[in-house]
Write a structure and sequence with these properties.
Layout lengths: L1 H20 L11 H36 L3 H6 L12 H7 L3 H32 L4 H12 L9 H10 L7 H23 L4 H9 L4 H12 L1 H16 L3 H6 L8 H12 L3 H21 L1 H9 L5
């Protein structure tokens, strides 16, 4: 009898070891209960934080779109987050029948001009800094660009205003473009320098051997390789300029020179308490940059993750 029990226990032990060797989880190898509880709690907190962040982002956008589809009566009587009882596009027609096209065109001109000047100037500066990285003047120049990141826009708005007045550019779109380019250059140069530093020097040396000059290397080598970073800084700078409010407020005064962020304040005065029409103007003003972001999202992610491997 004892011999049979001994053999049975030995057989069970061998089966357990076989299961462990096969990779199946064994009861004796499970993590202790406090560790499993801590892991579950950490996952719950992470999931809760993600849901909270999603709610903070989605709920305002939902309210914005829903409100723009309400009538004036529905807005004052219905619950703010309830779907509109009778959706209407009258608010969008009201906005489009006004001067919205002029404001949209002004914003597009300012944004495109600022991004074009910024990207071209920053690419040339970053290329010169990287190609002459051993030079003392190159390092000093790069530090001066980085110093621009520490200067808040609000602190220099009065000197900028006086410069624009002296240059006779007040109340023009150029008055918005020039300071926007100046304040977008530091972050753009920093990103492009970090990206171009990862380009192997052997590629530049090979082009030098082939007789290529600096301009040829900039156009044929640096610009194509830096395409993800160029798209990233273009989208980032475009968003900053498109949503910019301080420069248009201080440096322009005519209604035909207003850009969309400034024009939204005019809509508020124009429509009075017509909140749905104002929300329709906000929705229309966000659509262009939303389309740009959707079209460039892959290049944007590639540019954000590239150039910082070292």
């Amino acid at each position: 009898m004892s011999t049979t029990l001994t053999r049975t226990r030995a057989g069970v032990g061998k089966d357990d070891e076989a299961e462990d060797a096969a990779g199946r989880p064994a009861t004796a190898r499970r993590a202790p209960w406090p560790h499993r509880a801590a892991t579950a709690l950490r996952r719950a907190l992470t999931g809760g934080a993600a849901l909270l962040w999603t709610a903070l982002v989605v709920v305002p956008v939902y309210w914005l779109v829903v409100t723009s589809l309400r009538s004036g009566t529905d807005f004052t009587t219905a619950s703010p987050l309830a779907p509109p009882g009778h959706p209407t596009l009258a608010n969008y027609r009201t906005v489009l029948d006004g001067d919205f096209a002029t404001y949209l065109l002004n914003s597009a001109v300012v944004t495109v001009a600022t991004v074009a000047f910024t990207v071209v100037a920053a690419l040339m500066a970053a290329f010169a800094i990287v190609r002459n990285s051993d030079s003392r003047w190159s390092r000093v120049t790069f530090r001066l660009f980085l110093l621009g990141l520490a200067i808040p826009l609000q602190a220099v708005i009065i000197p900028v205003y006086l410069l624009i007045i002296r240059m006779r550019l007040y109340d023009s779109l150029a008055a918005i473009v020039l300071p926007s380019v100046a304040f977008a250059l530091p972050i753009t140069v920093m990103i492009l320098v970090s990206f171009l530093r990862d380009v192997p020097r052997s590629l530049f040396e090979a082009m030098v051997v082939d007789g290529a000059g600096d301009w040829r290397m900039l156009i044929s080598l640096a610009a194509p390789l830096a395409r993800p970073a160029l798209v990233t800084v273009a989208v980032y700078d475009g968003l900053q300029v498109w949503n910019g409010f301080l420069f248009p407020l201080i440096l322009t005064q005519s209604g035909d020179k207003a850009v969309l962020p400034l024009a939204l304040t005019l809509y508020r005065g124009q429509f009075g308490i017509d909140v749905p029409a104002t929300m329709a103007a906000v929705v229309l003003s966000t659509l262009p940059m939303f389309v740009v972001f959707v079209l460039a999202r892959r290049q944007l992610v590639a540019g954000l993750t590239a150039g910082f491997s070292k």
